[in-house]
Structure formats: C-alpha cells, structure tokens
Amino acid sequence: MESLIVDQNFLRKQELKALADTKPNNLFILPDVALIEMCKSPQWRNTLCGSLSILSNYPGRTRVCISTGEAIMIELETQNSISDCLLPDRYIPIFEELLLELFSENTGQMLEKIPLIQASLASNYLNHKKNQNDFKSLIEESKSIITSEKIKSLRNGSMSRKDKLDLIYNTAHLLLKEILKENNFTSSNVEVFLKKNPMILRYYYLKIWSCLDWLGKGGFESLLPKDVTNEILDHEYILLATFFNGILSKENRVNKAYKDISDILHP
User: pLDDT, tens digit, for every residue of 144-202?
Assistant: First the structure.
C-alpha cells in the first residue's frame, strides 16, 4: 500500500485511473489548497468536476490533507512534529459531501461556500505581490548566510548535487534555530524537535532549494509575481509528499524538488 500526493496536473490523466484500478490498496491524497485552487476561476464548478472526476470513483481511497501553513502553526504551538496528524478525520465527511453535491444537479451548503473561498484566495494564496515580496525576503536572508563563492559556484554550475544539498541543510538549520528560539523553544527543545524532521524544517529546506535554484539561474528578478504564486502552490504538494510515499506529477521541477528534499531527509 502506498499513500501518494496527487498534483493538479495529474488529476485528469488516465494514468491515475489505471493506477487506482491496478493498485486497489493505494491511497490518493489532495492538499486542502488543491481544492481551494480549483475554485479560483469563474468556471469553478467545471474545474472541480473535471479535476475530481476520476477520484470521485474512489471516495474511500481519497483523503484531504491539511495545509502546510496550518501544520506549521500547530507545530509551533505544540513544539512537536505534525507527521501523525496530517489527515484529519474531520475532512472525510466534508470531502464526501463535496463530491455528492458536485456530481448532482443541486448546489448544497458546501458549494454555497465557494464565493467565500474565492474571497479568501484573493487575499491570501493568490496575493501575487505579497508572495513575491515574501519570497524575495527569503532569498535576501539566504544570501546573507551563503558566501559569494558558493553563489558563484551555483551560477557557473560547478557545485555538485551533494554540496548543494548540504548547503540547503546547513542554511535551513541556521535560519530555523533562531526562529524557533523566537517562538519560545529552549535550546534543548530545538534539537529534539528538529530531529523529528517537522514540517517547518521541510518548509525551509524547500524554500532554500527554490532560492538556490533561482540564484543558480542568475536571479529572481525575472520571475513574474503570478509565477511566484504558482511556485508556492507547488510547494504545498512537494512538502506534503515528503511525509508519504511520493508524488504523482507531470512537472519535472516538482519531481526534482521532491527527490532532493527526500534525499536531505533520508540521506
């Protein structure tokens, strides 16, 4: 049995149906932001129906996972890894009700909430300028730790993959230890917490992976604000996949990031 995160670009592929039919014990997992993202256009119902049409045939094997933001908040409050609480049972009836309403001719309580979701999207996940500024701040913070020699080797392609993964690991730990202490972690708690590979640590691994990738390509300036948002949404799938058995995605960059972060976590 495998539990797999399903990327948006894989949801409508016949490969997903074939996998579901040939691997009857597999569990297919959607981040909650995937459902939210499907609602961003005026044609949200068509998008939801098209994206969920295959998985709607396997409701008992499809689960919805909490967002990375919620996971990190819980971790900071409890000072413990979220790893055992990523698939809350409370999402099961909500998802089943969504499918029931979606593939009927009626609009029930679930679908009536879509306008509220769209408003939340505009102010949070789809705030392109805010996303760009946040990402730029992280790049500047990372550059303050990474030496100019390392940045040069990233750009000229002379840095080995192992050295790059080591750089991600060391930079993430340096940044995160200070953040955790600011959130009332003692020094001993920090070490115990990080050994559990919590979501927030994986979050920093991936953000720094992304920063280094853009630094290696010459800079972040050419990246459009909406492309930053797409990158952030991709991160939801990648991060959650590192807690399970993998990710089903057609995007090379997503698969590469997943492989690199997985190798940092399990050297």
Answer: 788 889 988 988 889 999 999 999 999 999 999 999 999 999 999 999 999 999 999 99
Q: HSE of 19 in the Cβ direction (CA atoms, 13 Å)?
A: 21
Burial profile 36-75: b = 16 or more Cβ within 10 angstroms, e = fewer: bbbbeeeebbebbeebbebbbebeebbbbbbbbeebbebb
pTM value? 0.90
Distance, CA of 147 to CA of 253 (rounded, Å): 25
Strand order through the sheet with 247-248: 62-65, 27-31, 3-6, 247-248
Phi and psi angles of residue 63, each rounded to the nearest 5 degrees, phi first: -125, 155
Q: Which sequence spans correspond to the domains of the chain?
A: 3-123, 128-265
Asked if 228 contacts 128 with a C-beta cutoff of 8 angstroms, the reply is yes
